[in-house]
Amino acid sequence: MSEKNKGVIHRFKVGEIEKDILKAISSGQTADGSLALPNLNTKLKGFIKKRGPKGIKSVLEKLESKQMIILGGESIYLTEKGQKWQQSFEASEAIVQRPLIWDGVWHLVSYDIPNLQKVERDFLRQTLERWNFRKVQESLWVSPFDYSEEVAVLALNLGIPAHVILMTTNKLPDQERFEAWFGVRKP
């Protein structure tokens, strides 16, 4: 290890192809150490067609080095870490039904996640953005819709529940801007 990299902790991100492979493994779309093609999604099929067996092998080895899977001879298994990430992906894809009438309650998510868990922090932030939360301040997000259960499950699966706080309020600073953004009006 060079002097320059001494003491640097290397964190890995989980890409879309890796997510798809974890999803395939967790849903039983593997057979004898290979990915069963008929049931795979189009994106993963395209990756296999483009990169071939060596490309898949490379991604599987990367997932194994991240301790997400175990390559056991003819079989592929999700580790506990891989299962938690897969559950996090599923939780992040949840769709909360938007009520027809807003109840006037703002749902806030605040977090203070250490840099050692940057990957988890980024994943949480990206999920909040995907769920249409809006940033009030750094690490403070708001939605007029109740995602508290989904956020709690996501934080638990990411191993960061002690760093995430869920709150509700009836009033926000500059509330009119958020009402306009979300298209809601206080009853």
Could you say what the CATH topology of the largest domain is called? Arc Repressor Mutant, subunit A
User: How are the strands ordered across the major sheet?
Assistant: 6-7-5-8
End-to-end C-alpha gap: 62 Å
Query: Taking Cα atoms only, what radius of gyration do you get, to the nearest Å?
Result: 20 Å
The total number of structural domains is 2
**Shape label:** elongated
Element order: H for helix, E for strand? HEEHEEHEHEEHEH
- Multimerization state: single chain
Low-confidence stretches: 1-13
**Overall SS class:** alpha+beta
Describe this structure in words.
The chain is of the alpha+beta class and 187 residues long. The protein contains six helices and eight strands; from the N terminus they run αββαββαβαββαβα.
